[in-house]
Design a protein that fits this description.
Length: 195
Amino acid sequence: MSIAHLLNDFGSLSQGKPVAITDVSLEEERLEAFEKGYQAGWDDCVKSQVEDGRRITADLVQNLQDIGFTYEEVHAAIMGSMQRLLQQVTQTVLPPLSHAMLVPHVTEILHDLLESNGRQPVQITAGPADLAILRRLSAETPDLACTLTEDETLARGQVCVRLGESERALDMPDVLMRIEQAISGYFQDNKRSVA
């Protein structure tokens, strides 16, 4: 049995005009095909580079945003910790330290007043909490005529030193309050500048 009935018969088709191809026209066809292929390749390359550039730019923008966000988180965490630490220092360390430094501060004030006004009677006024420690200062300098006066309106760390017509006040609670205000102000300014 033959399989000819399954295959198409192309012999029955009429023959068209023969195509005449010269070397010149063949070369022109090849050149045109080459130009089309080259242009298509060039267009694909440019399109690929543009897409790569967009992808790289998008990745870079995302990475910069991630870095900026991470920096802000770290900065906020560090500043929050620093603020808590400094508040603890001003509330727990500085008050006892300021009380311990009361006598050296009063001694410094006395030295300045004596240097500018000469030897004259000294009057020191303080609250009841500071009188005991100031009595030791008076006992350590027996050659200095010093009168201690108690003033119940003065808080701990507030002392007034008078030498003749000159008078100087020491207000350690005010100093501590100013330190706390400076710390709070710094962190408030920092939050505003970051926001």
